[in-house]
Design a protein that fits this description.
Shape: globular
Order of helices and strands: EEEHHEEEEHHEEHHHE
Oligomer: single chain
Number of domains: 1
Number of helices: 7
CATH superfamily: PPM-type phosphatase domain
Distance between the termini: 30 Å
Strand order of the largest sheet: 1-10-9-6-7
Largest sheet: 5 strands, antiparallel
Number of strands: 10
CATH architecture: 4-Layer Sandwich
Length: 257
């Protein structure tokens, strides 16, 4: 599939060493990229994550895509997951995280929109610096914000898996969204918590620094997460923008609503 000018991307996923099925789903499109992590057990979780990705895929390739379109697609996915749960009792209570980025039109020019609901994450790697762009919607993250846990404690806390926002859980959605202009040389990492639960940021940054091809980088990150324990499904998407002669810039993206 042809991608937007200057964009390269690759993805990898693995069931891990503990789970019997892979409830993650990924989207690598031309201008829309996402990771969804299903909840609700075998079959139900897979359905929820697939529905999330399906609704985001419908946005891909639209030249007039705007930030509000992404929010509406997530709202539609939320309704579809809830409707599927009502229609099929064995899928009741299912949900999914959804995180990713898309190239949109904003203020008359191309911009990235980063979106998130749940505890999957988007990172930006530029200028040798790895920056987490999204905020986890989990009880552990809220406890870190309140000063009740440190970042390191939160990695191993039982509250890390208590998700406070997700698609399919409530009648309305409250995704986070950030909008900022693209910068030549930047690299993005989209991942389910199966990666961040196993690898520290410095190891993730080293792979993003050392492995130039985005698909190879995604595969290497997944391999390392599985080797480190693989206690959950692991899904990674790596997206490069304008990598070539330009050196990555270390500007931190601004936010906009």
């Amino acid at each position: 599939m042809a991608r937007a000018d200057g964009v390269r991307a690759g993805a990898a996923s693995d069931v891990g060493r503990v789970r019997s099925s892979n409830e993650d789903a990924a989207l690598v499109g031309s201008s829309v990229f996402a990771v969804a992590d299903g909840m609700g057990g075998h079959a139900a979780g897979e359905v929820a994550s697939a529905l999330a990705v399906e609704h985001l895929r419908a946005l891909d390739g639209r030249p007039d895509l705007r930030p509000d379109d992404v929010l509406e697609a997530l709202a539609e996915a939320n309704r579809a997951i809830r409707a599927a749960g009502l229609a099929h009792p064995e899928q009741a209570g299912m949900g999914a995280t959804a995180t990713g980025l898309a190239l949109v039109r904003f203020a008359g020019s191309p911009h990235w929109v980063v979106f998130n609901i749940g505890d999957s994450r988007v990172y930006r790697y530029a200028g040798g610096v790895l920056t987490q762009l999204t905020a986890d919607h989990s009880e552990a993250a809220e406890m870190v914000a309140a000063g009740a846990l440190t970042e390191e404690e939160a990695r191993y806390s039982r509250f890390r898996n208590v998700i406070t926002r997700a698609l399919g859980v409530h009648a309305t959605t409250r995704p986070d969204q950030w909008v900022f202009p693209p910068v030549a040389g930047e690299r993005f990492l989209l991942c389910s918590d199966g990666l961040t639960g196993e690898l520290a940021d410095d190891e993730v940054a080293a792979v993003l620094r050392d492995v130039a091809d985005p698909e190879h980088a995604a595969r290497e990150l997944v391999r390392r997460a599985v080797d480190a324990g693989g206690r959950d499904n692991v899904t990674v998407v790596v997206v490069d923008y304008g990598l070539g002669d330009a050196e990555p810039d270390d500007t931190v993206p601004r936010t906009a609503s």
